[in-house]
Amino acid sequence: MTPSFSRRTLIGASTALGMIARPGRVRGSTPNAKPAVLGGEPVRKKAFPGWPIVGDEDVSALVDVLRSGAWYRGSGDRVRRFEAEWADRLGVSHCVATANGTSALITAMNALEVGPGDEVIVPPYTFVATVNAVLIQHALPVFVDVDPETSQIDASKIAGAITDRTRAIVPVHIGGNPADLDAVMAVARDRGIPVVEDACQAHLAEWRGKKVGTIGDLGCFSFQNSKNLTSGEGGAVLTDDARLHAECLSFQNNGRSEGDMPGTFGRNGANLRLTEFQGALLSTQLTRLESQARTREQNAASLSALLDEIPGVTPARMHEGTTRNAYHLYMFRYDPAEFAGLPRSGFLKAMAAEGIPASGGYSPLYREPFLRRTLESRAFRASFPSSTLAEYEERLDLPGNERLCEEAVWLTQSMLLGTRQDMEQVAEAIRKIRAHASEIAKA
Ligand SMILES: *Cc1c(COP(=O)(O)O)cnc(C)c1O
């Protein structure tokens, strides 16, 4: 905690700045209204658009599968049809559907033969599944720090993390904002290391006009309930490489050689198949993805323009090669110094009171118990020198991630499916909280 003397000085300085230096920024009388967290009227009483969105086509597609009795991919053609549609939409030769995004990543790791003693480069600012897909192969996730400005892996640090055990590099397009794929692909090609894109949050995002998930050797998607394209659970692995495609198809179907029934068992595998219900639902949901993506982009652009006018909130920067952001999340960073020292938790609470649900996003994954427990497991002790495991935690020096985990604020993708007025209300709530930040901080 800051001593109260210097804290009061800070509050005084930033309040004065807000009132004197930026008079034009405060629109109308709203900022003078009492914040909802202090008992005033909330900026917004209506809920944001819900998710998922269900139409009659979804209902009839599901009922058709139900009545047909062909409920799994071996007896129907819905999964295969969706695979062809998704590959076509992304401009890639092959797509294998899987039970979920986690199993898409596990399938990709198996296609590349990532195994005991290997290392895989991952960013720490991601969903735990990216890391678990490596650990489950008894391979070591090597964290390369993120750039807090973009929330993406800092590709300039990848080369320094490569060893002769590095078997794959996994850039994650977090929030749907593409990682720097020029830099990632350059270092990967230079060292001959395969790239698996974790595009689980990046449906239709583009890098220099090409869809993300199709630029690395393999790309993985998730169709989990929260994702921009969903069937409750679901996933896919994409590739232009016929051999990798055959491995993925076989792996998700218990190692059947042709991928289909009955087949011979050519390799090890698991049952990670998508059901026909999910395949049918994804095809109908897919008909709306493009227009939803456009709405998200337009609303995100409006919101970014509004936030650019408010000191202390900074939208995530996009890399220069980004031609489309999928906005699974709208991410910005919050600076308490511009809000009279009001901590992020207080800001989030005040936003919720104004009717704007926002979250602080990920916490540092490597402080969760799962990592140490896995490193201490029998399989890891058998696969790695004890010195590697002993030094692992000491090497976790990730200041970019630490900072981002403290500063990030997320809005979910469905909040971007409404109107421009919704975005104005988000900005209005932030301006109101900022104008009253010292009172909120003291309350
Ligand atoms: C959702 C997600 C996954 C895993 O997907 P599931 O379908 O939930 O298994 C992996 N990586 C990232 C970045 C995700 O957001």
From TrEMBL:
<dbReference type="InterPro" id="IPR000653">
    <property type="entry name" value="DegT/StrS_aminotransferase"/>
</dbReference>
<comment type="similarity">
    <text>Belongs to the DegT/DnrJ/EryC1 family.</text>
</comment>
<dbReference type="InterPro" id="IPR015422">
    <property type="entry name" value="PyrdxlP-dep_Trfase_small"/>
</dbReference>
<dbReference type="InterPro" id="IPR015421">
    <property type="entry name" value="PyrdxlP-dep_Trfase_major"/>
</dbReference>
<protein>
    <submittedName>
        <fullName>L-glutamine:scyllo-inosose aminotransferase</fullName>
        <ecNumber>2.6.1.50</ecNumber>
    </submittedName>
</protein>
<keyword id="KW-0032">Aminotransferase</keyword>
<dbReference type="Pfam" id="PF01041">
    <property type="entry name" value="DegT_DnrJ_EryC1"/>
</dbReference>
<keyword id="KW-0663">Pyridoxal phosphate</keyword>
<dbReference type="InterPro" id="IPR015424">
    <property type="entry name" value="PyrdxlP-dep_Trfase"/>
</dbReference>
<dbReference type="GO" id="GO:0030170">
    <property type="term" value="F:pyridoxal phosphate binding"/>
</dbReference>
<feature type="modified residue" description="N6-(pyridoxal phosphate)lysine">
    <location>
        <position position="227"/>
    </location>
</feature>
<dbReference type="GO" id="GO:0047310">
    <property type="term" value="F:glutamine-scyllo-inositol transaminase activity"/>
</dbReference>
<feature type="active site" description="Proton acceptor">
    <location>
        <position position="227"/>
    </location>
</feature>
<dbReference type="GO" id="GO:0000271">
    <property type="term" value="P:polysaccharide biosynthetic process"/>
</dbReference>
<keyword id="KW-0808">Transferase</keyword>
